[in-house]
Design a protein that fits this description.
By secondary structure, the chain is α/β, with parallel strands linked by helices. It has a domain of 65 residues: Rossmann fold (3-Layer(aba) Sandwich), CATH 3.40.50. It has 4 helices and 4 strands. The two termini are 15 Å apart. Bound molecules: S-adenosylmethionine (SAM).
Length: 102
């Protein structure tokens, strides 16, 4: 995987799904290269915590470059998203305003 060079799949649909939602906390279970994450963070400046999860450390390294401008808001997590409950518990997060796995 390389840094974001093309439009992530279904990006318009993803942004549209959250267009009317106030997002304070977001869980992204497949952050990959960070293309969706970057677009969501740009569209939702109200986000306080963006949990960027991926099971591949190489993907997380790329995402950290893509999301460098948002690093104060992003928490990178190396895990399978099946562990979402444990991930949220470890971050003391009780609820999220949005999540996706694409
Ligand atoms: C198609 S890419 C994601 C694209 C990403 N949303 C973007 O904007 O670049 C798929 C990613 O999901 C991750 N992935 C697949 N299954 C996973 C799982 N069960 N838990 C965590 N990450 C997973 C892969 O490691 C890969 O980085």
């Amino acid at each position: 995987m390389k840094a974001v060079q093309h439009k992530p799949v279904m990006l318009d649909e993803v942004l549209s799904a959250f267009s009317d939602v106030e997002l304070k906390v977001f869980f992204d279970g497949t952050v990959g290269a960070g293309g969706h994450a970057k677009a969501i963070l740009e569209a939702h400046p109200e986000i306080e915590l963006y949990i960027a999860c991926d099971k591949d450390p190489a993907a997380l390294a790329i995402a950290s470059e893509t999301l460098e401008p948002f690093k104060k808001k992003v928490k990178f997590v190396h895990s399978d998203h099946v562990n979402v409950q444990e991930v949220l518990r470890d971050l003391s997060v009780n609820e999220v305003d949005g999540f996706f796995l694409i």
